[in-house]
Amino acid sequence: MNRFKQLAFWRYWALGLSTLLVLASLGVLAGKGLVLGQDFTGGMVQEIHISQPVTSQTLADTLSPLLGERPQVVQNGDDWRIRYQGDPGPDFSLADSLSQALGSQVTVHSASFVGGQVGDGQVAQSALAVALAALGILAYLALRFEWRLASGALLALLHDVALVLGVFSLLGLEFDLSVLAALLAVMGYSVNDSIVVADRLRETLGKRNRTPIAQLVDNAIRATFSRTLVTSGTTLFTVGALLWLGGEPLFGFALTLFVGIVVGTWSSIFVAATVGELFGLKAEHYLKKPREPKEGERLPAYRPY
After folding, report:
1. Backbone phi, then psi, for 247, in 5-degree steps?
2. Which of 248, 197, 243 is nearest to 223 (CA)?
């Protein structure tokens, strides 16, 4: 309990740790970049049917040496969807090679190629989607909060996005449209969590409270702490089940949500309001200025913070 009373101390240390993690994530992104999926780079998609039952792990392991890369394998009823980026050559036949490797009859139902221009278009549209989401969030924060508190929520959002992308870059995981969709969801989740704390802090600051700002920030976090843990805990339970049971096709999507919720909860507690405090947030920034008295009217004395 005494440690919880010294929340300001831990907030400052946590903010320093978050800063180091963000710098490390940016360094990994600059050095390794992101492994873009076929949605962005183009490649081949084939729908096949295998006469004998086979698992996705076995199929992917069998195809890897044949294609020179590990393909994305998705089961669709009795059929399989194979996605890969490389070009094995004009003489390569997926059905023949896979039939010999598995000892089963393989039938190709359809094959399509996603060109580079389509991939470039997906990159541009994805960047536009992220930019529009960020601008919308920025506009909302600017209208809802004073700039110091809004800046804290915005930096917490950037913190969460940087750490999620850093995890994907560090692990060499594929970044595709499903991961992008999850990242946009993480952005909304992060801002929502930060706003809960910021709104409670704003409410406290508007009451001409003479308590030091660090203590007010601590009180706002304590008041919303149980709500934050319950919301994040129940969401993590669901996403964790999806991560564990969803299989390879949903792994990137579920991992993005899982990491995003964890770092989003961390940033809403330790980053957003702390940054506003370090930017010089004071109670007087949310106090209403006294109105000018009308002729002959006497107003009570105004005592500023």
Report:
1. 80, -175
2. 197
State which H helix or E strand residue 251 sits in. helix 248-270
Asked whether the predicted pLDDT for residue 287 surpasses 50, the reply is yes
Kindly give, in sequence order, each residue whose CB lies less than 8 Å from that of residue 255, ignoring residues fewer than 6 positions away.
Answer: 167, 173, 243
Mean pLDDT score of the chain, rounded to an integer?
80
All CATH 1.20.1640.10 domain ranges of the chain, comma separated, are: 2-35+119-286
% pLDDT > 70, the chain: 84
pLDDT exceeds 50 at position 4? no
CATH number of 43-114: 3.30.70.3190
Among 65, 105, 104, 101, CA closest to 84: 65
Query: How far is Cα 159 from Cα 27, in angstroms, rounded to an integer?
Result: 14
Q: Where in the chain is the domain with CATH 3.30.70.3190?
A: 43-114
User: 137-160 pLDDT, tens per residue?
Assistant: 778 777 777 777 788 888 888 999
Predicted local confidence at residue 262, as pLDDT: 94
Topology of domain 2-35+119-286 in CATH is Multidrug efflux transporter AcrB transmembrane fold (1.20.1640)
CA distance 102 to 104: 5
Rounded to whole angstroms, what are the CA distances from 194 to 35, 123, 198, 222?
Answer: 30, 29, 6, 13
Closest CA to 257 of 196, 190, 171: 190
Q: What is the DSSP letter of 106?
A: E
CA–CA dist 126, 279 (Å, integer): 33
Using an 8 Å Cβ cutoff, are 63 and 82 in contact? yes
For 183-234, the pLDDT digits (tens) are 988 888 888 878 888 788 777 776 655 777 788 888 888 888 888 888 888 9
* Assigned token pair, 103: 């000892």
The predicted model scores a pTM of: 0.74
Residue type, 82: I
